[in-house]
Amino acid sequence: MTTLLAIDWTEFAVKAGQFILSFSIIVVLHELGHFLPAKWFKCRVEKFYLFFNPWFSLFKKKIGETEYGLGWVPFGGYVKIAGMIDESMDKEQMKQPPQSWEFRSKPAWQRLIIMVGGVLVNLMLGFLIYACMLWHWGEEYVPTNKFTYGIATDSLAQSIGFKDGDKLLSVDGEYIDRFNKIPMKIILSGSKTVEVERDGQKRTINIPEDFAGKLIKYKAVNFIEMRVPFVKVDSLASDTSAAAKAGIKKNDKIIAVNGVSTEFFQDFRKQVWKNKGKQVDLTVLRGKDTNHIALTIPEVGAIGVYNGDIKPYFETKEINYSFAQAIPAGVKKSKETLQSYWLQLKLIFSGKVNANESLGSVVSIGKMFAPVWDWQSFWGLTAFFSLVLALMNILPIPGLDGGHALFTLYEMISGRKPSDKFMEYAQMAGMVLLLGIMAYALGLDIFRLFK
Q: What is the DSSP secondary structure assignment for residue 206, as one 8-state letter?
């Protein structure tokens, strides 16, 4: 009950809305990638559904030979193509003699195109979104060598030798201009050393082999981040936030928590988290006056204040793209995204990280969306998930598109088609495996939520 009361339901609704819209776009276009080639090759498509519809549908309408519908279980969608062994497990249809309009009657190359169509559409969608984002918004970032105040570190980073204020020089001897690539390089590429500047001197920090596993275990991807000054209170999360109730106002400058200086925003955040559930004394500058405000920090470890504009404190780099320039830039960003996610999968399969600590369900995915509706963040996550879906779906596992494609390729190479009975059992085994993983991931998320 305490966990439920601690949930910000407005934030939950915003995140849920973004999640549903994002995955509706991804799923509908993915299924369209199967639907269109199936129609081109004269296959009968019996159903086209967003979300699954066991027992009943929220909406359905038959147009021609196809029933279009909306299911009530928001875990994907499907197209039911006649004569295909899929998640519907329609065994009765498969007992009948093959018909010319059935999937199983088509040449292997046509069946292969139908099966990989969804993956290709998701790849194209991810690339197009990234390209359009770069064309519309461009890119703006602070180069790693322009971090005025160095980096802020958490306890894991400090445990291997990093300190607040360190300035990053190189990773394994290579300077990386975009800071956001450094944590992922350390986690995914098995980096050995990081060179930093501290108090005017160069120091080398050695990265232990088990460090990536620890970062994933404790969800500490931001173990190092750009250190930023706590400028002032730019705004409050809401009129009912702990800060608002205590009397904190816009343009206040919080300079200490229980006497501990909060010159940098990360220092403030650490002190708030450290004292969650406790009453603290905030030292606040309001104009020329110094005030002390008593405040009880909620159990969620945040009081609801946003930092002021930090842009004047840093030298930023801006890149604007023409439409022609955005296309190769979008391809490059898509490629980097796929490589990064593939490396994450390799870490899991190699046993270097515990799958229990990196596995997540729709709950984990939904939490990734912004607490306020931010179109730039929304489209960035939609592109990312579209590419991830493509990569996951092409894995050669029965029940996924990659499993169907694998059996079709085997047929094309060997000239022998797997029997319907074999395909039935393979599909069943794949579905049991996938549903088991989904149920397990959901259970882990529920456990984490209440823990």
A: E
CB-based burial label for 129 (10 Å; 0-12, 13-18, 19+): buried
Using CA atoms of 140, 143, 147, 148 in order, give the dihedral in degrees to the nearest 10: -80
Rounded Cα distance, 149 and 266, in Å: 12
105 DSSP assignment:
G
Please write the tens of the pLDDT for every residue from 168-203.
Answer: 999 999 999 999 888 878 877 778 899 999 999 999
- For 144-226, the fitting CATH number among 1.10.1660, 2.40.50, 2.40.30, 2.30.42 is 2.30.42
Query: What one-character DSSP code corresponds to residue 313?
Result: G
Burial of 43 (0-12, 13-18, 19+ CB in 10 A): buried
pLDDT of 347 above 80: no
pLDDT in tens, 238-257: 788 899 999 999 999 999 99
Greatest pairwise CA separation for the chain in angstroms: 88
Q: Is the pTM of this model over 0.85?
A: no
